[in-house]
């Protein structure tokens, strides 16, 4: 890409001054005010300041060393010492022509691929996946997709909540109150029912609570019958989770739930105590963080006073396993914001335990989904919204929208399009806001064809597809090599679209720099906007060659970037709508 060539030239230039500058300190970014240029760098100012040079003069000297005539129409020293670069339209045309001819993507793959573990979704067994898990699932899947697209090695792991004190009550309920018929129809609901019922009963009757505790102790001690029930609960839950994952198009490389690490927990607590990293305190074992103001009052409990290990103990064992088996460069954990303290504790404790590790640990947290009343998103009767029902409703509502827009399509096609649009709308609405803010769930907004929505973007893609369908109907094919040498980008709408196409890689990089898919959403929304203006101003099929081929080329690349971008967000596309 051209901005990389500019960056390379700048890096060469600063490496040749005396004493040389670290080339990595130079960054070229998009120039936000397009009247000044297409790209800019402000990296030179810092260097000038460090060396006590006049920044504008320094920028002028560096500029003189750049050999960018082939790509840049102008290079200007601006403001306190930036450089602004304006591209030559011929150079842009050349890059696009090559991309079409070689079938290349308009972004660069990572030069040094890294290994990432993405820990996401991670629902709890015997409980319905609810809207809280949808954000983790959608966001985590999207980040994994973008990392893969950029050429990194990605390992996805679903850290199921399949162990814990709830199994005492669940097993007792299973033994005494299970309704087999209901279990066949909707296992998770039946397990939720017995759990709720036992929970209430245990509150009222201490003797019953003691029996539930005994069931738990027996399970932990390896009792065959209890283990069998517990396994059954996991597999029934997994079947229902898998139905949702398949509807969302989400796959995991591994599903290593909390119970997978059970065998390591006791010895881990011992390791921590014998090395002085954890201490006995009020009957429990805790790690203290007296030197850290934010964790000072929050010691991490790794063994409760009843001897049981905790969520933290399991996460430490999980980290050790991942380090040993996968040697990742980075791990990202996608959960809601309420787990921030937990992950701070885990990361700090791990750092003390294995000071030599070089894994970068990231907690990618998100806010809540709110109903239109601004309160946590619930059903009309005040219950937690189940994910499967939410997806059903999305598809039903989308079907109405699709039928209105395109009444001539047959039922089956309408249904299939509605599936893509409905699921896509839910995902996009989740990815578009800043992940850390709460957002209001609104069917009308997310299914609208106006504004920054999935239907709008999917529709833009179908417009591109329709051009190529029409072209095929005339018996002509768009040859991948046919963006002609002599063709030029002329209309301002062509040039703006072309320049935006070149910036796809910036959007992908911006996402992984801070784990924020909204950058890609906004990039695609702008792309659809530039395409709409191009579409209005520039006839494509009616244009004369060579202009016709150039415009077809722009359409083809717009389609390619829209498709790659939407798929990176986890959305399927459709050719018709
Ligand atoms: N099961 C947990 C929950 O539902 C999320 C687990 C996140 N991953 C982890 N390694 N702790 O809140």
Protein architecture, described:
With 577 residues, this protein is α/β, with parallel strands linked by helices. Among the domains are: 86 residues, 2-Layer Sandwich (Gyrase A, domain 2), CATH 3.30.1360.70; 83 residues, no CATH class; 209 residues, Isoleucyl-tRNA Synthetase, Domain 1 (Orthogonal Bundle), CATH 1.10.730.10. It contains 21 helices and 13 strands. The chain has a 4-stranded antiparallel β-sheet. Strands 6-5-10-11 form a 4-stranded parallel β-sheet, with helices on both faces. Strand 7 and strand 8 form a beta hairpin. Helix 17 crosses helix 20 and helix 20 packs antiparallel against helix 21. 38% of the residues are buried. The mean pLDDT is 94. Bound molecules: arginine. Arginine binds next to helix 12 and strand 10.
Instruction: Estimate the mean pLDDT confidence.
Output: 94
Instruction: Give the N-to-C terminal Cα separation.
Output: 33 Å
**Cofactors and ligands present?**
arginine
Question: Can you tell me the CATH superfamily of one domain?
Answer: Isoleucyl-tRNA Synthetase, Domain 1
Alpha plus pi helix count? 21
Please tell me how large the radius of gyration is.
Answer: 28 Å
Q: pLDDT below 50 for ≥5 consecutive residues: which ranges?
A: none
Shape: flat
Helix content: 40-55%
Q: Might you state the CATH topology name of one domain?
A: Isoleucyl-tRNA Synthetase, Domain 1
Major sheet: size, sense and barrel closure? Answer: 4 strands, antiparallel
Strand order of the largest sheet: 1-2-4-3
| Residue fraction in strands | 5-15%
Tally of DSSP β-strands: 13
The CATH architecture category of one domain equals Orthogonal Bundle
User: What's the CATH class label of one domain?
Assistant: Mainly Alpha
Going by helix content, strand content and strand pairing, the class is alpha/beta
């Amino acid at each position: 890409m051209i901005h990389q060539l500019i960056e390379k030239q700048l890096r060469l230039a600063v490496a040749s001054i005396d004493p040389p500058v670290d080339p990595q300190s130079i960054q070229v970014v998009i120039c936000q005010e397009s009247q000044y240029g297409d790209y800019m760098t402000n990296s030179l100012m810092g260097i000038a300041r460090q060396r006590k040079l006049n920044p504008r003069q320094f920028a002028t000297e560096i500029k003189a060393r750049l050999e960018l005539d082939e790509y840049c129409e102008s290079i200007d020293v601006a403001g306190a010492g930036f450089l602004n670069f304006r591209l030559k339209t011929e150079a842009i045309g050349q890059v696009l022509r090559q991309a079409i001819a070689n079938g290349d993507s308009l972004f660069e793959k990572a030069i040094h691929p890294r290994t990432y573990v993405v820990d996401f979704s991670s629902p709890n067994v015997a409980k319905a996946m609810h809207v809280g898990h949808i954000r983790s699932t959608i966001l985590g899947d999207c980040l994994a997709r973008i990392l893969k697209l950029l050429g990194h090695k990605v390992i996805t792991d679903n850290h199921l909540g399949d162990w814990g004190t709830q199994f005492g009550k669940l097993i007792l309920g299973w033994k005494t109150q299970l309704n087999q018929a209901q279990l066949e129809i909707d296992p998770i609901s039946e397990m939720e029912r017995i759990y709720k019922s036992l929970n209430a009963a245990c509150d009222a009757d201490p003797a019953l609570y003691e029996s539930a505790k005994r069931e738990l102790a027996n399970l932990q001690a390896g009792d065959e019958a209890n283990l069998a029930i517990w396994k059954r609960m996991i597999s029934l839950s997994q079947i229902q989770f898998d139905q949702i994952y398949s509807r969302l198009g989400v796959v995991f490389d591994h599903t290593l739930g909390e119970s997978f690490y059970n065998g390591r927990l006791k010895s881990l607590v011992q390791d921590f105590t014998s090395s002085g990293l954890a201490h006995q305190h009020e009957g429990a074992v805790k790690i203290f963080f007296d030197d850290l103001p934010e964790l000072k009052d929050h010691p991490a409990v790794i063994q409760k006073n009843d001897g049981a290990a905790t969520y933290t103990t399991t996460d430490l064992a999980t980290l050790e396993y991942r380090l040993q088996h996968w040697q990742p460069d980075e791990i990202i954990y996608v959960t809601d914001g309420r787990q921030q303290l937990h992950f701070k504790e885990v990361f700090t404790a791990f750092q003390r335990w294995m000071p030599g590790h070089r894994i970068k640990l990231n907690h990618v947290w998100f806010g809540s989904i709110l109903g239109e009343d601004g309160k946590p998103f619930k059903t009309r009767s005040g219950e937690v919204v189940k994910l499967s029902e939410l997806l059903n409703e999305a598809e039903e509502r989308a079907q109405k929208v699709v039928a209105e827009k395109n009444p001539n399509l047959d039922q089956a096609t309408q249904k299939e399009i509605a599936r893509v649009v409905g699921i896509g709308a839910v995902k996009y609405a989740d990815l578009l806001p800043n992940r850390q803010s709460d957002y209001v769930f609104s069917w009308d907004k997310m299914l609208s064809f106006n504004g920054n929505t999935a239907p709008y973007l999917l529709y833009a893609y179908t417009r591109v597809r329709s051009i190529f369908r029409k072209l095929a109907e005339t018996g002509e094919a768009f040859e991948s090599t046919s963006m002609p040498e002599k063709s030029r980008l002329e209309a301002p709408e062509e040039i703006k679209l072309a320049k935006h196409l070149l910036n796809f890689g910036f959007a992908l990089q911006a996402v992984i720099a801070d784990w924020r898919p909204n950058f890609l959403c906004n990039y695609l929304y702008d792309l659809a906007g530039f395409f709409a203006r191009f579409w209005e101003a520039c006839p494509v099929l009616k244009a004369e060659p060579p202009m016709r081929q150039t415009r077809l080329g722009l359409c083809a690349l717009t389609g390619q970037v829209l498709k790659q971008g939407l798929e990176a967000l986890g959305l399927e596309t459709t050719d018709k709508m």
